[in-house]
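Structure representation.

___
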Amino acid sequence: MSNNPDTAAQVYLRRKQKNLDFFKVSLPKIYQILENQMLTRAELVVTPGAKDLDMTIDGQSCYRGLAKEYSEDEALQFLKENPPEKPLKTFAPEWPSSYPADRFASVRVRHLLEASPVTPENFEGYLRGNNFFPSIVFLGCGLGFHIQAVLERTTVVSAFIVEREPEKFALSLFTVDWAAICAKFKRRGHSINFAIGLGNGSENIQSILARHLKGAVPFYPFMTTYYNHLADIELAEAAMEVSKDVATIAAHWSNYDDQLIRLRNTAFNVSKGICYLKKKNLPASEYPLVVVGSGPSIDHRIDSLKSVRDRVLIVSAGTGLRPLLMAGIKPDLHVELDPGYSIYEIHADLGADTLKDIPLLAVNEINPHVPELFGRTRYYFKSDNAVPALLGIPGDGFPGCNPTCTNAALSISYSLGFRKLFLFGTDYGFESKDKDHASTSIHGDKADTDFALQFRAKVAKRKRPVFEVPGVGGGRIYTRSDYYSAKRSVEQLLLDLESAASSMEVFNCADGAEIEGTVWLAEEDFVKRIEGLSAADLPSLDERFQSIEADLGRDTMDEALPDLVAEIRRETGALARLVKKTKLGGARDLALLANELKTSITRIKPKPGGVGVTGAQLAMNQVLQGGVLRLVHVGLSHGLACHDGKGRDQFIRLWRDQVVDLLEALPDHFQRVMSDARPMADNPWSRTGIRFPEPELYEQGGS
């Protein structure tokens, strides 16, 4: 501060201390940022006798001495440009086609969507009404006056305060009462979050934005309105970059039906007694390791891989196995991630005993019949999965394994010590819409068995929309939301791994989408690179596995199941009671309930008297969270998309009834499936997948 008499200064200093005291108790993570924040670039300017303030950054005025007046006018203009009757035109909601499977939860959600008056033909955006905003992202905190002005004039259900410069946020401690602002969000169904950058560039704020906004699903991105303070171009550009990943939001959503399949598969596998790998980083090796997917560039790249076969280790990932075998290349290891029974069918189509001498590294959720086809099988767990905690082995999961086998292969290869990694067939895109896989993969036209033909016919019926992304050659190629999600996940994984190991090098030897964090190699450059690597001793994969493997007892899952069932009953009961008792008189009530449900299912607290969250609680949340968020999204999006008040009221009542019905029926359904004692060979749950009709569909209300 400058030019400020001592008496006036005390007012600002007391306000700052009050704010610090508030953050220390209520939001300690924000307090840690602010506690010792040095003001080296930002300054609060208080002129004696003036009624207004200013903020300068590097000596440049932000408000021209009129911070309060400017912020007030800006807030009024924002509200004028976003009147209650103006529809939010962001992204369309889900439709019945999003839930094609005849499974416990999917059937109920599909029937609900079929009853909605909103269709792709009449969808015209989301109506707020009643002078409220479901969600506002305030891009830029400044001195906070604009946030204060908006909240004095309207209700915001979910607010995000984003500031890339922590010094600016620190100045707001002198000017606004954050305790009073946050008090508005202590009411039922309201929430406020802060995303404060480190002031060191756009990548940092992009990362922070992405992390926070993903936690705001489903309000983000469907119900979000952006408020850009002081026309902060860099912050707006960061938000736009984050919004490009909207395609990955739905790809990361889970659901109850899928989680049940994964947990049932785990129970089958554990009941056989499994050997699994513990997460531990082994000594580094410079020996080149190649991870192989099934992208279309395999067709013209496979010969270069064959030419150096005796100088590399090869790990096949998912459907990358078949193209390798068709080219006469046997991988040193095969990695699987997908839990569906179709994985067994795809590999079984290669013929009996074809895979018996190939070791398998399978996720704990793998269909239990898949290991029967391979040689020695070891299992791995994912670090973002609750099952290790449920089974009493927390900390043994590998990070960054989702959403594809390629991610898992990369993560585990790094932990095994490999620092020279080459990606083949990881195209994450395609030049021709008619060719999105290698010709010899199960998706390709050279796979001509009866099963392959039938498989491709089924897949063709569920082709996803395509869009363009930058290609490795500098042009544009096509991709899909699932491929793009996988690409972005790989890029984040590589960013994390490379920051931990400066010696790590990852080379992209696919001719598809550009992969940040990799060096693209043309075919001839790949061969030269392998030939140019100094001769390193060939490491033994088996010895490395043996150094980090452990056994899991056959009864481990059976012993953990009762606590998990009890937690599911407790949580679904609490959620059902919340839905039943809540008044739903319109759009605002629906938004408040939606936010309360979202908050309840995304925050896990220790039970009374407990010292921490238990493995059963974590697993319960994993089973339920995605499904509850989907229910919230369906109710919120279709409710607010109803422009007819009567139609909206009818749909909200139907939604409430369906949510309560599902929550009350779910615990018995879960217990029945998980406690089914029939042996694997006779149990239809060992031969299912998310796109298969549910075996012996339980309690579907006549469906």
